[in-house]
Amino acid sequence: MNKSFSFSDAPTLLNVAVVGHTNTGKTSLIRTMLRSSEFGEVEDAAGTTRHVEQATISAGDIPILNLHDTPGLEDTLALHAYLKYASTQSRSVSPVKILEDFVANISLHDPLEQEAKVIRQVLRSDVLLYIIDVREPLLEKYRVELEILTRSAKPIIPVFNFVAGHEQELSRWRERLATYNIHATLEFDTVAFTFEAEKRLYQKIQTLVEKHYHNLQLLIDYRAKVWKQLCLSGAKRIAELIVSVACYRESKNSHNSQITESLNENRIRDYVRKAEQECLHDLLKIFNFSEKDVAIQKIPVHDGHWELDIFAPGILKAYGLDVGSAAAKGAAAGAGIDLMVGGLSLGAASALGALAGAGWSTFRRYGDEIKAKLQGAKWLCVDESTLQILYFRQKQLLEKLMHRGHAANNAMQIETPEKLQLPADWVNLINALRQNPVWRDSTPSRYTHKQYQEIENKLITAILGDQIFARL
After folding, report:
1. Any idea what the Cα angle at residue 288 is, between residues 135 and 301, rounded to 5°?
2. Is 361 helix (H, G, I), strand (E, B) or coil?
3. Dihedral angle over CA of 215, 218, 219, 224, nearest 10
């Protein structure tokens, strides 16, 4: 998707004016559609947008439509009175011509100058998106605004904003608009985003402007493809986190001192912290958000960076895991890792035979570790509980990002998920990763390995869910 903030107007493009009362979420809608928090200004104060601003949405390199962000309608009663008076003076003149005369004759410092900016863009546009904040009471001013806009003879789509958690208010708004014979409405929450709502918005416009139907279908197909890729990239990044952490190990033998073991455990914890930090950063980047958009376990920010301490007191308990286990240290300190060759677990007694009978490719991959096994070596690995927390926390973060509009101002709270469900065959997946430490690094050989591909696919499917991913 390409963006443009110029005021150039390509006549072949569909022009969509985003209109409505002040502070209903017009700029927020455009931000969410652009996947960018940089367009315009969004504040709680009324009248933030003072001029018409434009953004272009494209399907790849093909520009499809211009979105025009308009100032809020502030004094619609005065405008309505003016138009009503003009109508009585020239009964044979059409409502559209009266609007055209109004914008043509308005002076620079006229009290209705703000309304003139909106009407001027309305007359230039093909479709109007009338944004309604359902949290607002059903005041007369909204009926007046709609009456004024209908004079333009442009198709109008009322868009209900901020609908999440306000079902009763939404129902009342629908009933009220139905009394005005307005039924073709749409729900599009600019904070609690769903791609399905965005898709329906384009489909609704399709039904109103037949000559742009083909181009809009190109846009719908393109945006669906891009959205699917974003979600898939996020799930792959989480899978990569689990793989890299599960494959990480530090050597341990009987000659290690307590100081050496403590240093090894510290290295593991530091590795896990850094790995999660990098995963968080990448997920935010994929969906075009920043670290100010997320708050995880109320962990403080230090020098502009999140201190993601997965081993902080209370984290394990919050996820219902055993505080008294080795997980409290973040490492399976005494665990020995058996090699897996051809699906068979190799104990110390059988390691020598495996070494003698192994082919060159097997020896090149496992030879050093089999010899280490014979010498009684063990490894420090990241424990099961830590891996589970990583999975749960990043999966929840991805779900939040997939449903966050770019107009949202409050930071997402990533806390203990209500439902904890690991991927099927989780234990075997983790064991297989521990047996293959070479997969810790992203290499071509890792991605072409059949077992790795199976593990990655299982993790991605569990992260996105079969049904959710099928709808993308």
Report:
1. 85
2. helix
3. 160
Contacts of 102 (CB under 8 A, 6+ apart): 82, 83, 86, 112, 116, 119
Beta bridge partners of 302: 305
The CATH 3.40.50.300 domain(s) of the chain lie at 14-208
| Residue whose C-alpha is closest to residue 142's, from 154, 158, 128 | 158
What does each of the 472 residues of the chain score in pLDDT, given as a tens digit?
444 434 344 448 999 999 988 888 888 899 889 988 777 554 444 444 458 899 999 999 999 999 999 988 888 889 999 899 888 887 778 999 999 999 998 887 888 988 999 999 999 999 999 999 999 988 888 889 999 999 999 999 999 999 988 999 999 999 989 988 888 899 998 888 899 999 999 999 999 999 999 999 999 999 999 999 999 999 999 999 999 999 988 776 656 566 666 777 788 888 888 898 899 999 999 999 887 777 654 443 344 333 445 565 555 566 566 544 443 344 443 333 333 333 333 344 444 444 444 444 544 555 455 555 545 556 778 888 889 888 998 998 899 899 988 877 776 666 656 667 899 899 999 988 988 888 998 888 899 999 999 999 999 999 998 645 555 5
Do 131 and 19 form a contact (C-beta atoms < 8 A)?
yes
HEC string for 64-77: EEEEEECCCECCHH
Tokens at residue 83, please? 């138009």
Residue 95 neighbours by CB under 8 Å, 6+ apart: 83, 87, 151, 152, 153
Taking the model in full, what pTM does it have? 0.78
Cα(125)–Cα(129) distance, integer angstroms: 10
Concatenate the DSSP letters of all residues of 311-340 into one string. Answer: TSTTHHHHTT--TTSGGGGTSBTT----EE
Q: Which amino acid is at 144?
A: V
Domain 14-208 has CATH 3.40.830.10: no
HEC profile of 54-117: EEEEEECCEEEEEEEECCCECCHHHHHHHHHHHHHHCCCCCHHHHHHHHHHHCCCCCCCHHHHH
